[in-house]
Specification:
The protein is α/β, with parallel strands linked by helices. Helix content is about 40%, strand content about 15%. It has ten helices and eight strands. Helix 2 runs parallel beside helix 10 and helix 8 runs parallel beside helix 10. It is globular and about 40 Å long. It starts with 5 loop residues before the first helix and ends in a 9-residue tail after the last helix.
């Protein structure tokens, strides 16, 4: 992964649980980090740029304290402004190459994939990682049809980069994701809305077979 520093590349490859949430749910991040979240992405379509940068700076420091990576969704300029570790861009957002030009060679750039063709393109692109799904339809990606398990198997058989199964991931579905070939998952509602985010994160890591990595950063 030549586009990221060795340290970031190693941490990204070792990552297993990736939490995505909005600024209003920032209180969930610390217990989730204690439970073993490896990456946190701030994805907030309604907050102002100033609000995202302010929340991003706080979350970046919190993630750094726990050895986790912190990314901003969609906006590489805001990722630079809050000194995030990187940015995630979807298929309908800025192209990966353009995002890379803005954040530079030493930050992470991730992207989303929803088809075998997009998996192949992401694997050949300048992205450092990609998400595969949504496995199940989810309200966080309204209107995006589910890809099912076949795309997870496709990525597992071809990928040369870290990738994360996304869409409806919880302690039960993560077991199926692992059986289908996923080593990493993106989680939104199962952790964000949990009564005990720390315990839920630990349960997800256990289901994924990654519980031994908690606290190893």
């Amino acid at each position: 992964m030549p586009t990221s520093s060795g340290s970031l590349a190693d941490r990204l490859r070792a990552a297993r649980v990736y939490l995505v949430l909005e600024a209003a749910a920032a209180h969930v991040v610390e217990p989730a980090l204690r439970g073993g979240v490896d990456l946190v992405q701030l994805r907030d379509k309604h907050a102002s740029d100033d609000e995202i940068v302010r929340a991003g700076r706080e979350l970046r420091e919190l993630c750094a304290d726990h050895g986790a990576l912190f990314l901003i969704n969609d906006r590489p300029d805001l990722a630079v402004a809050c000194e995030a570790d990187g940015v995630h861009v979807g298929q309908d957002d800025m192209p990966v190459g353009e995002a890379r030009e803005i954040v530079g060679p030493h930050r992470v750039v991730g992207t989303s994939t929803h088809s075998p063709e997009q998996v192949d393109a992401a694997d050949a692109s300048d992205a450092d990682y990609y998400a595969v799904g949504p496995v199940f339809e989810t309200p966080t990606k309204e209107g995006r049809p589910a890809t099912g398990w076949d795309l997870i198997g496709y990525a597992a058989g071809r990928s040369s980069k870290p990738w994360f199964a996304i869409g409806g991931m919880d302690p039960e579905t993560v077991r199926a994701a692992a059986a289908a070939g996923a080593e990493r998952v993106v989680v939104v509602r199962a952790i964000r809305d949990a009564a005990d985010p720390e315990a839920t994160t630990r349960a997800i890591r256990t289901a994924l077979g990654a519980e031994e990595r908690v606290g190893a950063a």
